[in-house]
Write a structure and sequence with these properties.
Helix content is 28%, strand content 35%. By secondary structure, it is of the alpha+beta class.
Length: 141
């Protein structure tokens, strides 16, 4: 049984492993315990990775470790665990920033409104914050 609620996403992700060239990757799911991403190739279980999400300058970077790897639709779905609760919380905040940026771009594209990040954040929070479940650290009771 799954220990954490997973949140679907489709955010660009850069992945660097010490002994290989970076695979093409897209973030697919996120939870308090880790994340999963689609890759064009398999990654060895136990491999430590440096993950980078380019949402701002400098990009957000975090370390993780591969805990599973499955073939899915001619790609590989890779599961990564975080090392600390703070890492998990940080990635969750980055996911929220990505959602706000997606909202800002959608408003500009569909409504023709040019809004800044602060206005997009206010609107997104009002419209979607309730759909973004509360985060609980790994050691929560």
């Amino acid at each position: 049984m799954r220990q954490y609620i997973r949140h679907a996403t489709d955010i660009p992700l850069s992945v660097q492993a010490a002994d290989t060239s970076p695979p093409d990757a897209r973030l697919k799911n996120f939870s308090c315990g880790g994340l999963s991403f689609c890759s064009d190739r398999a990654i060895t279980l136990g491999q430590r990775l440096r993950l980078s999400i380019d949402i701002d300058e400098p990009p957000f970077e975090i370390d993780g470790q591969v805990v599973w790897c499955h073939v899915q639709d001619e790609q590989y779905l890779i599961g990564v665990c975080f090392h600390t609760d703070q890492d998990a919380f940080s990635v969750r905040m980055v996911e929220q920033l990505c959602r706000i940026e997606e909202y800002r771009e959608k408003v500009q594209r569909t409504e023709g409104r040019d809004i800044d990040r602060d206005q997009a954040a206010r609107e997104w929070i009002e419209l979607h914050a309730a759909e973004f479940p509360n985060w609980q650290p790994n050691n929560a009771d």
